Amino acid sequence: MQCLVAVPQALNAMTLTLQSETEFTVKTYVAIIGGKAVLAFRAEDDDEACAMIDDQEGSMRSDLKVLVDTDGKPLWDGKSAIEAREATAAQHAEWEQSRDQAISDGEIDLDARNDPDEWNVYLMGVPRTNKVQRSQ
User: pLDDT value at position 16?
Assistant: First the structure.
């Protein structure tokens, strides 16, 4: 599988710089299947993002085969190409909001040194409802 990474121009300022003994930058990426963003995740760079998607033994691929979208279809058929690109500002904000909620709910335990950048967000959307037309 070939991993393609596209970088939206407006995202250069959206990287998070963490400081410890060494400084490194972590970016939010999205996995795209069939032209649809299905997963937001964090990686240090394009190469790591591609490696995470291409990992045949990793949990990302198995999760994408098991989880279903709002139509009840698996997010990934196990055959289609999975591409990676940097997240849009809105996708990054959705990842960040989910991560913050996970920290608040204790799903990410910072005291236990859980890495919040390992949090993945599946972008399955909200089921569509039929609009009811009101009679006048």
Answer: 42
